[in-house]
Amino acid sequence: MVASSIFVNNEVQVLPNPCALTIKPRLEYLLFLTESIIQKLRAARTIARESNGRFYLDNCDFVNDNQQFKKQVNMEATLVRALESVKIIRKTLGNISQIDNISQTVSPLVLVARTVNSDIYAGMPQISRDLIELSGLMGSIVMDSGSLAEAKFDFKQTNLESKRMLAEVNLIAESKIRTLYPNLNC
Q1: Which architecture does CATH list for 18-180?
Q2: Domain locations along the chain
Q3: What is the C-alpha to C-alpha distance for residues 103 and 110, in angstroms, rounded to an integer?
Q4: What is the pLDDT of residue 68?
Q5: Torsion angle, CA of 76/77/81/82, rounded to 10 degrees?
Q6: Residue 1 burial by Cβ neighbours in a 10 Å radius (0-12, 13-18, 19+)
Q7: Phi and psi, residue 20, nearest 5°
Q8: What is the dihedral of CA 72, 74, 76, 79, to 10 degrees?
Q9: What is the rounded distance in angstroms from the CA atom of residue 47 to the CA atom of residue 103?
Q10: pTM of the prediction?
Q11: Does residue 170 contact residue 163 with C-beta atoms inside 8 Å?
């Protein structure tokens, strides 16, 4: 474990690494932040779903000819992907119990959060800011826990895990959108 040292009464005293003391509160804040993001995404998805659902019911036979409706459905699909991604992040963060595996567990989530942010940054600036904060905090926790546990990072494995999570989220979103709008060819 990395430690700090200070002089007290002309003696060196070893203190625990301050990063070790701040990881748990940051994890707790991340859980709070993910819950806040989830609530905002749910509200945006509900608005999109109600609007798209009304239009779909009124124009079921003509939806494939309406490019604006297809754009709106694509935005709804983006919201569903974002929501499912943040749910995975929250679940994974909530299951952390030891410092030893934080760097391997959290590092793929950073890329997931950044990917979600890149999908919604133009249309939802407040959620985008929250996702930037989320990915930054997760990155700092990865670095601090990695230095404490003297972890080695395997970026190839991290990227593969991120891609797996994102592929799973894409399947969930596609399934939900196809269920809601079965006559739509996107």
Answers
A1: Up-down Bundle (1.20)
A2: 18-180
A3: 11
A4: 87
A5: -30
A6: exposed
A7: -65, -30
A8: -140
A9: 37
A10: 0.83
A11: no
**117 vs 130: CA distance, rounded Å:** 9
- What is the spatial distance between Cα 169 and Cα 83, in angstroms, rounded to a whole number? 9
pLDDT at 10: 66
Strand partners, 150: none
> For residue 58, what are the CA distances in angstroms to 53, 135, 140, 175?
9, 41, 49, 22
Q: What is the mean pLDDT of residues 69-83?
A: 94
Question: How far apart, in whole angstroms, are the C-alpha atoms of residue 83 and residue 74?
Answer: 14
Classify residue 1 by its DSSP letter. -
Through-space distance between the first and last CA atoms of the chain, rounded to whole angstroms? 53
Residue carrying structure tokens 């604006």 = 68
Instruction: Report in angstroms the alpha-carbon separations of 15 from 3, 46, 61, 148.
Output: 6, 50, 70, 13
Closest to 86 in 3D by CA, of 106, 119, 120, 109: 109
Q: Which residue has the tokens 């990917």?
A: 115
β partners of residue 13: 6
